[in-house]
């Protein structure tokens, strides 16, 4: 009898902390994306003779403000879920989606009125930086839509906020990248 119980796993064996594993994976993803965005940012400063007058300064400022406001709405949605206020969370997820789409539209408009070409040095860096960033914004909007649809169904609560928290963390990451990109593209010579 003693041999039979010796080979059975202990009933109190530690379980994996799945939330900690998910958070670690998300932070590793952010680290890898930081390298990509950092390399693009360094390429911008490697080039000489960049004229910011070619960019629409007012539009650049406007889309930056829109993106920063979207971080506030995303944070409000996350906080609302953590306090089981599902209606407020749903509305603020919707507002974040709307602001993200406006930002992406602003970038697309900037592309259409840019006075430089893709084959010029600054044009290449500008289109690469804004294009990859806009791709991440659109990806974030898609994830926000998926989370928003699930939030409308009541899937998330203070006991199950991970999906909302993860998407909001991603959204904040994309916003922080733009905080570095905006001055590098629009404010420095």
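^ structure tokens above, recovered residues below v
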């Amino acid at each position: 009898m003693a041999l039979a119980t010796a080979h059975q796993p202990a009933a109190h064996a530690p379980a994996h902390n799945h939330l900690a594993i998910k958070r670690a994976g998300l932070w590793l993803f952010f680290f890898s994306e930081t390298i990509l965005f950092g390399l693009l940012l360094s390429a911008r400063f490697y080039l000489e003779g960049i004229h910011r007058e070619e960019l629409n300064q007012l539009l650049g400022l406007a889309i930056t403000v829109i993106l920063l406001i979207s971080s506030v709405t995303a944070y409000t949605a996350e906080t609302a879920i953590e306090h089981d206020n599902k209606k407020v969370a749903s509305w603020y997820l919707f507002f974040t989606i709307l602001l993200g789409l406006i930002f992406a539209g602003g970038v697309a408009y900037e592309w259409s009125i840019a006075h430089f070409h893709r084959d010029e040095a600054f044009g290449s860096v500008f289109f690469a930086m804004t294009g990859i960033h806009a791709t991440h914004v659109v990806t974030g909007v898609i994830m926000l839509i998926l989370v928003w649809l699930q939030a409308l169904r009541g899937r998330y609560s203070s006991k199950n906020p991970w999906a909302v928290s993860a998407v909001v963390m991603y959204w904040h990451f994309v916003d922080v990248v733009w905080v570095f990109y905006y001055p590098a593209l629009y404010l420095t010579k």
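Residues 121-152 form the longest helix (32 residues).
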